[in-house]
């Protein structure tokens, strides 16, 4: 696992954008395509906007295949949709071919949407292992990642797949790649910045508590090359 600490949000985003393009170009050079599972929430929006604005000619975007590590159980036109966020920040500005974008079908019931998304991923990888070239992840202030939330049954999945998650406190469903599927990735990058995440980062990196409390610990450094991108606030806490 590689821990990269930067002084501010812009440095974190610039570093991860350059890393994204490096990993993508390596995959395209090796096998003619690059598969990535995008993270949602607010942190990655600026990353996607930076990629669209500064890296349009640095990568053969027509060889990139976009998936989602998780999705909210809302229409693809809803303001909370991770797909809509990525569409506005990245896909539309770069005129990405819709055939290269694999959103979760949230018109289905959560369990059905999860099962169908798992089929979509299995079809993409054909008979090969379900190994994305890169999985981007965020970190919630309660140490969740993707939609692997504390004390939810999905934390106990043992086979790579996609599950539905019910969040009782919010009374909403999410659809998420589970930890075994994320851990199949060739590389995993966490994008974390902001003082509000410092405690979560500390728990995930420093505590060896029950994963029920800190689900991001499920993501195994030994499998992928995990790179933590976070600002100095989080790092400052780690030094205490
Ligand atoms: C989502 C994400 C989730 C996110 C974290 C951090 O759909 O919300 O996939 O795991 O990465 O909650 O979100 P912020 O970047 O908005 O803090």
From TrEMBL:
Q: What is its EC number?
A: 3.1.1.31
- Residue intervals of the Glucosamine/galactosamine-6-phosphate isomerase domain: 8-228
Which is a GO BP term held by this UniProt record?
pentose-phosphate shunt
Protein keywords: Hydrolase
Among InterPro entries, the record links this protein to:
6-phosphogluconolactonase_DevB, 6PGL, Glc/Gal-6P_isomerase, NagB/RpiA_transferase-like
Statement: the UniProt record of this protein carries the keyword Hydrolase: yes
Reaction(s) catalysed by this chain, per the record, are: 6-phospho-D-glucono-1,5-lactone + H2O = 6-phospho-D-gluconate + H(+)
Going by the record, the broad EC class of this enzyme is hydrolase
Looking up SUPFAM superfamilies in the UniProt record yields: NagB/RpiA/CoA transferase-like (SSF100950)
Question: Pfam families per the record?
Answer: Glucosamine_iso
Return the similarity comment: Belongs to the glucosamine/galactosamine-6-phosphate isomerase family. 6-phosphogluconolactonase subfamily.
- What is the protein's name according to its record? 6-phosphogluconolactonase
Instruction: Identify the species of origin.
Output: Mucilaginibacter gotjawali
